[in-house]
Amino acid sequence: xxxxxxxxxxxxxxxxxxxxxxxxxxxxxxxxxxxxxxxxxxxxxxxxxxxxxxxxxxxxxxxxxxxxxxxxxxxxxxxxxxxxxxxxxxxxxxxxxxxxxxxxxxxxxxxxxxxxxxxxxxxxxxxxxxxxxxxxxxxxxxxxxxxxxxxxxxxxxxxxxxxxxxxxxxxxxxxxxxxxxxxxxxxxxxxxxxxxxxxxxxxxxxxxxxxxxxxxxxxxxxxxxxxxxxxxxxxxxxxxxxxxxxxxxxxxxxxxxxxxxxxxxxxxxxxxxxxxxxxxxxxxxxxxxxxxxxxxxxxxxxxxxxxxxxxxxxxxxxxxxxxxxxxxxxxxxxxxxxxxxxxxxxxxxxxxxxxxxxxxxxxxxxxxxxxxxxxxxxxxxxxxxxxxxxxxxxxxxxxxxxxxxxxxxxxxxxxxx
Amino acid sequence: xxxxxxxxxxxxxxxxxxxxxxxxxxxxxxxxxxxxxxxxxxxxxxxxxxxxxxxxxxxxxxxxxxxxxxxxxxxxxxxxxxxxxxxxxxxxxxxxxxxxxxxxxxxxxxxxxxxxxxxxxxxxxxxxxxxxxxxxxxxxxxxxxxxxxxxxxxxxxxxxxxxxxxxxxxxxxxxxxxxxxxxxxxxxxxxxxxxxxxxxxxxxxxxxxxxxxxxxxxxxxxxxxxxxxxxxxxxxxxxxxxxxxxxxxx
Lengths: 417, 250
Known about the structure:
The structure holds two protein chains of two kinds.
Chain A: E1 2-3, H1 11-21, H2 26-38, H3 54-58, E2 60-63, E3 72-73, E4 77-80, E5 83-87, E6 92-96, H4 108-115, E7 120-125, E8 129-136, E9 142-152, E10 157-165, E11 173-182, E12 187-196, E13 202-211, E14 216-225, E15 229-237, E16 242-251, E17 256-265, E18 271-280, E19 285-294, E20 301-311, E21 317-326, E22 331-340, H5 344-351, H6 357-373, H7 379-394
Parallel strand pairs in A: 2-9, 3-5, 4-8, 7-9, 8-10, 9-11, 10-12, 11-13, 12-14, 13-15, 14-16, 15-17, 16-18, 17-19, 18-20, 19-21, 20-22
Antiparallel strand pairs in A: 1-2, 4-5, 6-7
Helix pairs in contact in A: 2-4, 5-6, 6-7
Chain B: E1 3-14, E2 17-28, E3 32-36, H1 43-51, E4 56-65, E5 68-69, H2 75-80, E6 83-86, E7 93-97, H3 98-112, H4 120-133, E8 144-145, H5 151-165, E9 169-173, H6 181-194, E10 200-204, H7 209-213, E11 218-223, E12 226-231, H8 234-242
Parallel strand pairs in B: 3-10, 3-11, 6-9, 9-10
Antiparallel strand pairs in B: 1-2, 1-4, 4-5, 7-8, 11-12
């Protein structure tokens, strides 16, 4: 059993944990050192300020076992409770102790995740590929921790689409994430589609993306449902690289969900464009705490960031904190944030043509969401995300997991009773 | 001929500002009525009160449509019953596809009337045909509703909606503003297409030029929240020559 909350007080115990996992390598030492500097998150930790991390840290967890299994051939990559079970024939997947760890990540759980995993799942992509990753969680009341390292070859194109299925992992804590290294001139698109349902696992995903010279990454995150979850993203941009990060959040019930990010412009002429659209219903809380940092080496940067939130009820709340930190003059940067209700003039216009208020609201909410969903280039993935959103939207009051996995996607939303 | 609309002693305000002050107006079925009046007289407030705009508070009075008081009706119910207003400044709705929106509206009305809904092919065939007649680029049907449309394109789109929805009572709130001659002619032809001796039109305008294309039956002058004069088309030239100040309260 592992009591996460005690680790910052008793670093020695953590050291013991590392010894247990045999991770006495340089990466583990770096992770330990950084974790000591940052301290484990509490409700006072800035990046977890709007997310209820303490109950997760104070709970005593059974750690999911990492017993390796034979990897079956499939047309997608399946990871069950942190263990690879299926993979496409042409995707190079292996477990590896050696890994790169970013020394400047802002999230302590990024380092803790590395420390808890003696090996990481490594995916090396040598040529153009379209990889679908299905994350499957089955263990109840368990800490499921794993990390994925993805490295591309230069000048290739990769699409990674992630889906999640965790109906059986009731009250579990998933501490996972990826380190994505995009090589020079490569182009990567990551699409995460995760619907969370109250009572199942709580995810904290801590990711790092490194963009080499002239590379491009587009990161889409689609976070829907009525339960808690947080993703923490750090991206580091080298010369002439570009990142586009689009986040669509639709939370209802009492869910607390969102994104904490840092995009660091380290090289010259790098570009970033981050857009968050948040729809909050009932007593849900949305989080968009995002920093764009332009280093002294980041001359010629173009960085834009925008967050829009629509509150559908009086009890809904949006914690929106876009920030710019600029250490050089020669840049073009902007940020903005709006929080409001649905536009009354638009609602009236639609109703004036004979469409009911309820239908008009649906139209506007779907339109708000579609501005991000419709940017997905792959028509199959786009359709799948549309479906995820509409299941949550039209599910109205009740969300529930069902036993069968629908197309190996995520939680299925029950019909309204 | 009976009245399609009877407005009786209507008092309406926007916020604290009282705009309509005991307005009375009868609109005869099958006729084209024009309302003219100086800025701030209450012309747009009247049209908004008829369609149930959220800005307008009706404090007193009745709006009878086909004999039924609609003051407390929701805007969508008024539309389903056949009231249509072409907006002076149609709002842009990013992300809502123009054709999808119009088909939803058309089918909502057909359902309300107990008719079979139009399938996508039937709808598109009809919409494209009418768009062509209006001189409207067909690609506008695939764009977001009114988003990035020019002033003329917005007015043509309003006219297309009107033609597709086939309403009984049509309010045109300054549909002629900002239109060039060709657009004005197309929009007017669209209006004339619906003139069938049964539909009633209420045209709100500052200018007589649209009236050259759509011949009015009655002209009403609205000033300081009341109709101060009603007459035939000859009233338009009188107003143009003498201005509103020349009209005393009736």
